Amino acid sequence: MTKSLFRRLTKKGFIISNFIVAILFLGAVCSKWLDPETYWIFGLMNIASFYFLAVLILFIFFWLFIKPRWALISIITIAITWRSANNIIAFKLPGKFSKQKADNDIRIMSWNVAQFDVLNFSKTHEKFYKMMQLINENQPDIACFQEVVCSDSIGTTYLHLSTILDSLKFPYYHYSYENNENWFGLNMHFGTIIFSKYPIVNKQSVSHAPFNYNSTFHYADIVKNTDTIRVFNIHLQSLKFSKGNVTYIQDESLKEKVTNITESKSIINKMKSGLINRKKQSDWIREEMDKSPYFLIVCGDFNDVPNSYAYETLGNGLQNTFVEKGSGIGRTFSGIAPHLRIDNIFVDKKFKVTQFTRVARRLSDHFPIIADINLNKQ
Predict the structure, then answer these.
(1) DSSP count for the chain of H helices, then E strands
(2) What 8-state DSSP symbol labels residue 74?
(3) Which residues are CB-neighbours of 212 under 8 A, at least 6 positions away?
(4) Alpha-carbon distance 101 to 197, whole Å?
(5) Of 90, 30, 20, 75, which is closest to residue 323 (Cα–Cα)?
(6) How far apart are CA 141 and CA 198, in angstroms?
(7) Paired residues of 232 in beta bridges
(8) pLDDT grade for 156, boundaries at 50, 70 and 90
(9) Cα dist from 161 to 157, 193, 200, 345, whole Å
């Protein structure tokens, strides 16, 4: 084979590969408009959309040195999907986050607290009080926490709600959970909580069959000065990966064929089930959001990546504070993969987003995210 023939075949191979990645990326970002119950395969593709986008960007630099005109494949693909691409990677330089917020700003924090390390609370309070310290250091006005496990009733318990209240000094809160939840038989509940420094004038919890943790969400109407804000705190269906699933994903040394097939089927089935459940849950939440007469803030652990059906359904008509003021990838989940930004703060377009940050401290398996916003009166 002559060098010229080899060069032509190699070039064609790169061109075809570039087209394939472009098509995969287009299909992935289309998942936000497609019903996961029917088109779940597009939802699975969307989980890998970050990698498709990264390869498209690499192809641009590759072609600029080899044959610049072929860079148009990636450039055009990214251009026509710019909003979706910007949801995945915020293409802006990082800004400095000031812990001292402006007087008129409202500081919002959202964090999956992973039960406040309650399983070790009887042995040591160290991590719990480090989490309390982190929250207090950042001084949120409104804080939305997911995976909260504590007791709000009298009795023997590992962690009592009053302990959290005493540590954080929020005068108002809304703790929501399913009444049949009773961890360890100690009157402890698995739920979500909204804390506020401003008065809460209305509290609502909404639950649908099968009436479990992920099918329950809540909101609170919060008054600041003369404005009322409806704050939703949500936690959508997780993937429920077993330790074996996670080990299989992370451990490259697992090569046994039977194990690979079994684990692959288990992971795909769980991902498919998660997509379908999150579709139902996001539709329920959206229905309640559309009833709101007030400005909206939606916080929580979506357990889904940008441009998914759930992300688009809940973010429609709102602005994502990370996209507005964040930069780079903004990973919020510390395990499995380096691109999982699955926690979000969406706010009404009437708000101006002034700051955003992710606190990169591993006190939970999620990183807390914080946004400063103010109401644009114009």
Answers:
(1) 11, 12
(2) H
(3) 178
(4) 15
(5) 90
(6) 7
(7) 219, 298
(8) low
(9) 10, 10, 18, 24
Give me the phi and psi of 173, to 5 degrees please.
Answer: -160, 160
Average pLDDT, the chain: 88
Quickly count: other Cβ atoms within 10 Å of residue 251's Cβ: 9
Give the rounded percent of residues in the chain with a pLDDT score beyond 90. 67
**Token pair recorded at residue 277:** 């459940």
Asked whether 89 and 349 are in contact (CB, 8 A), the reply is: no
What's the chain's Rg over C-alpha atoms? Answer: 23
Burial of 149 (0-12, 13-18, 19+ CB in 10 A): buried
Cα-Cα-Cα-Cα dihedral sign, residues 171, 177, 181, 183: negative
Q: b vs e for 252-290, b when ≥16 Cβ sit within 10 Å of the residue's Cβ?
A: eeeeeeeeeeebeeebeebbbebbbbbbbbbebbbeebe
Q: Is 8 exposed, middle or buried (0-12, 13-18, 19+ CB in 10 A)?
A: exposed
Mean pLDDT of 86-100: 90
Report pTM. 0.89
Note the pLDDT of residue 42. Answer: 94
Output the six-digit token pair for 364: 């939970």
pLDDT tens-digit series, residues 299-316: 999 999 999 999 999 999
Q: Would the CA dihedral through 36, 38, 42, 47 be positive or negative?
A: positive
> What mean pLDDT is predicted for residues 95-106?
90
Which residue(s) pair with 366 in the sheet?
333
Q: Please write the tens of the pLDDT for every residue from 335-353.
A: 777 789 999 999 999 999 9
Taking only the tens place, the pLDDT of each residue in 266-277 is 678 888 888 999
Please say whether the beta carbons of 314 and 350 come within 8 A.
no
How far CA 305 is from CA of 138, 301, 331, 337, 338, in Å, comes to 26, 10, 10, 12, 12
Neighbouring-strand partners of residue 167: none
Strand order, beta sheet including 106-112: 172-177, 189-196, 142-150, 106-112, 369-375, 351-358
Instruction: Compute the distance between CA of residue 371 and CA of residue 129 in angstroms, rounded to an integer.
Output: 23
